[in-house]
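Possible regression after last week's pipeline update?

I re-ran a chain I had predicted before the update to compare outputs. Posting the input and the new output here so someone can diff against the archived version. Not blocking, just want to make sure nothing changed silently.
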Amino acid sequence: MKVSFTLNGDPITADVEPRTSLADLVRGEHRCTSVHLGCEHGVCGACTVLIDGKIARSCITLAVSLDGAMVTTLEGLADDALMARLREAFRTHHGLQCGYCTPGMLITAHDLIRRKGALAEAELRQGLAGNICRCTGYAGIVAAVAAAMDEHETTKSAASIAAE
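New output (post-update):
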């Protein structure tokens, strides 16, 4: 089956089997290696991407269902200022170890900050709950996302004051 969508800003047209997952398509044919396959049941969050601006599990999303969609992987957020803050915060706050969950955590954190802004720690932990990490114990991840969230809110406030 033929499917056409936008991947990280580039138009893609592909012939795929009806059972091909988005994860398999973008990793195998388009070298988006930030999309990790963990559970392949949509539970672990390692394969998290943005589809039309909303987080989704690419391992359980059929590629044929994406005709006309806009798909963004971590590679597509390379020049995003918020993502740069998140990457730096993960490094500073020791929010990663093996790195397998990191792309999905970063995409989820980016989405949380973009949609919800400042969150209390309990809300932040709830928002990240769909992403499993077997290495870190989550303390560094939560601290990193909280730091990036605080910096984002400060930057947003400064920008709004400057606009006045």
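Follow-up from reviewer: compared with the archived run. The CA atoms of residues 105 and 131 lie 6 Å apart. Marking as no regression found.
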